């Protein structure tokens, strides 16, 4: 590690080292300043913190447990543990920050929450939070992902949200972000854009990280209680990077804990548009109002990206991840589509847990570490459950794993 982690980050301008900031129109910057002030007031308000803690416990079901995966551990000769964010209400880690953002919006007097979603987990969580606090909710989602993640689309609509398709470009997550930003700019006074990861202009990378940090804070205590030690390795998937920052933050000062972020290698790291390995192959740039590593085309614009996991196909990444990469504190590797699907079935059939395809990338990388000789304990953030993915997986990979259609 080159330097110790700076806990004061981001600074007042929203920078983690050289990454982050707020590259948005002046009029919108005034709105962001209001959001920052409201969040700072909320985070210091005992009543706000008490209400959020109450909802985490009685609505979400926190703390989420840590599970020792006995069968995987025996097969791979490595102690493997899962932080079970898939057991949260709505099925993923996304509810952690959506509740926080919804409460902030309510305190600010906003009338509507808007957001993008890829795999649909953020959309479901935000629709849930909006229903709970009595706000309208618009969710922008790429047409490709609407078809792919149909169960989550149905959930959002049942919860009262408007699901609005993004129909340009590749019609996936990046385009959903574009569409949501465009809608937000039309009325930033009455709406709050509840960004779904540790991305976007300041204060969102900070705010989402802080709400998600409950994952690592719980895990640190739970793992010590279970084993008497801290884990030797942390592993989490990275698209925008919220579940990863949620787990990593509590362990950044623990030099004996190796931290691994896992990006999607898709179908090929060698081909443009066939992966979304931003930290692996990208370079610094500005998109969607913040500076971070990004995948660029020949004109410096966001490159086309792809992943079998709808929640990971984003051509940038949270600015704190870029900072941690340059600092050398977190190692960023990849898992490709096939490795993720193999891990999806491995966990399902060895432990009786069907993971989200996003989370399966983290599991795939952890299994690679074990195969490469890692004998120390591995704690994987199982960031979501795979209910949303089962139709897609069976349709595209079922025969490979002996699942014949019953229709």
From TrEMBL:
GO terms for cellular component: cytoplasm. SUPFAM superfamilies: Tryptophan synthase beta subunit-like PLP-dependent enzymes. InterPro entries: Trp_synth_b_CS, Trp_synth_beta, Trp_synth_beta/beta-like, TrpB-like_PALP, TrpB-like_PALP_sf. GO terms for molecular function: tryptophan synthase activity. It is an enzyme of class 4 (lyase). Pathway: Amino-acid biosynthesis; L-tryptophan biosynthesis; L-tryptophan from chorismate: step 5/5. The modification N6-(pyridoxal phosphate)lysine is found at residue 94. It holds the Pfam family PALP. It catalyses: (1S,2R)-1-C-(indol-3-yl)glycerol 3-phosphate + L-serine = D-glyceraldehyde 3-phosphate + L-tryptophan + H2O. Coiled coil: none annotated. Its cofactor is pyridoxal 5'-phosphate. The keyword Amino-acid biosynthesis applies. Its EC number is 4.2.1.20. Keywords: Amino-acid biosynthesis, Aromatic amino acid biosynthesis, Lyase, Pyridoxal phosphate, Tryptophan biosynthesis. Residues 61-384 form the Tryptophan synthase beta chain-like PALP domain. The beta subunit is responsible for the synthesis of L-tryptophan from indole and L-serine. Tetramer of two alpha and two beta chains. Belongs to the TrpB family. This is Tryptophan synthase beta chain. It comes from Photobacterium sanctipauli. The lineage of its organism: Bacteria, Pseudomonadati, Pseudomonadota, Gammaproteobacteria, Vibrionales. The gene is trpB.
